[in-house]
Write a structure and sequence with these properties.
Length: about 280
């Protein structure tokens, strides 16, 4: 009987591992072919590495072999003919644009209230009717209007000879509440009416005008009080935005006026001022 534990010395490791097993299984075949595959892969990898290392040297050698010998050319300088200079025709300068037309200064009309000097109206005396007209009367039960007798003016007293009598001038009573249109001395702004117009023009906010362009007019009226302040400011004109801004501007002027006077006494007076502005 043969010894089952004895192995043949010529057996490989794979034959020993797969003894009494199914050698048709793929693992046996792979282990058997593995050394040859490994050897082939090593050789191919080594060959590829050598090619990668040697290729740059081969390319450089080929370039050196293909490079032609440089030929030195003995060049001599020759006289260079100077070309005629091209004269550039100077361009005609365009005339400068005409200056913009000067802005016309806004013409401000100044209207002053000129109060005529009061004159006493001549006294008209009505002559009495004739006597025949006065005697024409009728009697009856009805009341009838009679003829009025002419007014009687007493003669002035005779001048006294002796002690002198002093006459006292009695000034008419001036109202402190009434607004006068006619006065003896008109109200006046410090510096004149042109200074007042300048104040209005400087403080006028043109942005309040919604798309308004051109010339806009209005008449401003206000009351100059007895202390020189301004009240009851009004504006009359076709543009409502212009009227509102004009009223606001006049009210913003803080300087006081010199009040109007009647018989030397300050009174309330109404002042009218035409205002014209040009918006571009």
């Amino acid at each position: 009987m043969a010894n089952d534990t004895a192995y043949n010395d010529n057996l490989t490791l794979d034959e020993i591992v797969f003894e009494n097993r199914n050698k048709e299984y793929g693992a046996y075949d792979l282990r058997k072919k593995y050394p040859r595959i490994l050897t082939r892969a090593f050789l191919l990898g080594t060959l590829l590495f050598v090619l990668l290392v040697v290729t740059p040297f081969v390319v450089m050698k080929i370039q050196q072999m293909a490079e032609k010998n440089k030929q030195e050319v003995d060049a001599k300088l020759v006289d260079v003919l100077q070309e005629d200079k091209i004269l550039e025709v100077p361009k005609e300068e365009e005339p400068p644009p005409p200056p913009p037309p000067p802005k016309q200064e806004e013409k401000i009309e100044v209207i002053q209230n000129v109060v005529p000097e009061p004159k006493k109206a001549p006294k008209v005396e009505t002559p009495p009717p004739p006597i025949t007209k006065q005697l024409e009367t009728t009697t009856g039960l009805q009341n009838q209007e009679g003829v009025k007798a002419p007014s009687y003016t007493p003669p002035p007293p005779p001048p006294s000879t002796g002690t002198a009598t002093s006459t006292v001038e009695v000034k008419p009573q001036v109202s402190t509440t009434q607004v006068y249109d006619k006065v003896d001395q008109s109200s006046e702004y410090p510096g004149g009416i042109n200074a007042f117009r300048t104040k209005i023009r400087e403080n006028f906010d043109s942005s309040a005008m919604e798309g308004g362009e051109g010339t806009v007019k209005a008449e401003i009226s206000f009351v100059v009080e007895r202390d020189g302040s301004i009240t009851d400011v009004k504006a009359t004109g076709p543009n409502r935005d212009f009227n509102d801004e004009a009223i606001r501007t006049v009210k913003s002027v803080k300087n006081k006026w010199t009040p109007a006077k009647i018989d030397g006494q300050p009174v309330r007076s109404r002042y009218r001022l035409p205002l014209t502005m040009n918006f571009e």
